[in-house]
Amino acid sequence: MIKSVKGVFVVLVFSSFLSLSFEKESVSAERLVPGDQAPELVLCNQVQPLSLHDAAGRYTLLSFWASYDAVSRVQNAAWSHLAGQDDRVKMISVSFDRYASVCRASIRQDGLSEEDCHIETEGAGSAVFQAYHLEQGFKNYLLDCEGKVVAMNITPKELDSYLRE
User: Fold this and answer.
1) Which of 18, 52, 92, 143 is least crowded, fewest Cβ atoms below 10 Å from its Cβ?
2) How far is residue 96's CA from residue 69's CA, in Å, rounded to a whole number?
3) Partners of 64 in the beta sheet?
4) How far apart (Å, rounded) are the C-alpha atoms in residues 163 and 59?
5) 95 strand-pairing partners
6) Checking phi first, is residue 106 left (phi over 0); if not, alpha (psi -120 to 50) or beta?
7) How far is residue 107's CA from residue 163's CA, in Å, rounded to a whole number?
8) What gap in Å lies between CA 13 and CA 30, rounded to an integer?
9) pTM score over 0.85
10) Which phi-psi region, left, alpha or beta, contains residue 148 (left: φ > 0; alpha: ψ -120 to 50)?
11) Distance in angstroms (rounded) separating the CA atoms of residues 42 and 78
12) What is the spatial distance between Cα 104 and Cα 81, in angstroms, rounded to a whole number?
């Protein structure tokens, strides 16, 4: 009987350590939170980064996607069309496609504005991918006119409430 109690105790202790290790990992994965300054966008090692500030006082909607990720591609297209209808939102779309030709074909198919779409061909190894913590999947970020994160993974309804403020 004592051996079985010891065995159960060992399993409980081991499972507790295991669950704590996963908990710490999920907490640390979201290091960029509302109120933080958004990291600069330097794509494909360009010297000139894309500006996340907007002198006109508009919000910037920063959307990360790839043509091989159907969910992110659909969301990006929806955001692009929505932002195109409202002057209070500037859209910056960043694709993580390996080939620029694939990205350009997706942009044409989705009816996106080419001037709002940019590509990072280095994928998960890029500084942008790491800075925005996209290991857990593609996200969108709403930034204020100073380039600070207002919200992450917002919905159209949430964007509408920010625009009404």
Assistant:
1) 18
2) 10
3) 94
4) 9
5) 65, 119
6) alpha
7) 26
8) 27
9) no
10) beta
11) 25
12) 17
Distances (CA, A) of 131 to 23, 29, 46, 77: 21, 11, 16, 23
Q: Determine if residue 153 is left, alpha or beta; phi over 0 gives left, psi from -120 to 50 gives alpha, anything else beta.
A: left
**Per-residue model confidence as pLDDT tens for the chain (165 residues):** 555 545 544 444 444 444 444 443 333 345 889 999 999 888 887 745 678 888 788 999 999 999 999 999 999 999 998 888 899 999 999 999 999 999 999 999 999 989 899 999 998 899 999 999 999 899 999 999 999 999 999 988 898 888 888
Kindly state the tokens that stand for 34.
């509302």
Helix (H) or strand (E) holding 91: strand 89-95
- Return the structure tokens found at 149: 């994160």
CB 98 within 8 A of CB 123: yes
CA-wise closest residue to 126 among 97, 165, 161: 97
Here the tokens at position 8 are 């159960």
H or E element in which residue 60 lies: strand 59-65
Q: Which residue has the tokens 């992110």?
A: 72
